[in-house]
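Chapter summary example.
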Amino acid sequence: MILKGLHHVSAITANARKNYEFYSKVLGMRLVKKSVNQDATSMYHLFYADEIGNPGTDLTFFEIPNAGRTYQGNNSISRVSLRVPNDNALNYWVQRFNNLQVDHDGISEQNGHHVIHFRDHENQRLTLISDEKNQGVAGGIPWKHSHASVENGIVGLGPVKITVPDSEPTVKALTKVLSFKKIGSYPSPVLGQKDILVFSTGEGGNGAEVHLEVRNDLPRERPGKGSVHHVAFRVDSDKELTKWYEKLIEARMPNSGIVDRYYFKALYFRDQNRILFELSTDGPGFATDEDVEHLGEKLALPPFLEDQRAEIEANLEPLETKSTK
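The structure predicted for these 325 residues follows.
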């Protein structure tokens, strides 16, 4: 039972329309599913990914219109990375960010890879990471109708950074429960802080890493718009997910039990640092109820919510997502 890498990351936005403008029109990611939060159907749940919504390429957002600002700090998933094909692609993105007035820090180096740290319009902490020296989990397929460059386009999720005041509970969850391996470390960019630890699973590489930062100088994060809700890791099949559930029970880790999200099945739990982890199956995938050529254009509801469609649509602000390219 080895997790295959990152499956998706889910974050919070206060405005679905502005979120779509940034992630689709600026970053050029494809909206592969326009749905609702299955646990609170009055809010959108938007899924951005590669050409066909491959697992490991998916960044999702729950819309919470009254979400306040995020007060950044500890006990958080503090940074999300997005992979691009090579170092040259980063030059393209610097120019694009300059032209579109996206807040960024320019090209730097992190753990042997060139990166660009940047923020979206809600101060979501993001990084573009070059796959030029990457070995491991393959990237996805850039969207052929992308508003950005297809050649330099985003091909999936890169390392996720977790920030905690005490590393031990999260190290235990990653290594003893989830079978990640510690493969190295690199210096913290913050003077006086411990090195950031690097953990890997499956085939490894940018699509299968968690970076763990210990900060003794921060308060607990107060989440809001621009914060991350959870990180999910890839499980091969329903049968294997059941085995992970049994492993969590054996480890006495409180969990959600297996939840059918229609596009995948999921299992949630928190470590003692209150980090929310999810294990998600690779299938059946986002083309289950929509043609690949028209993913994300209409409001998609799983069958168990279809009889509530009229009520659900009445509670949502209209959001036009049909590509004009």
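To summarize the output: Residues 6-314 form a domain with the 2,3-Dihydroxybiphenyl 1,2-Dioxygenase; domain 1 fold (CATH 3.10.180.10).
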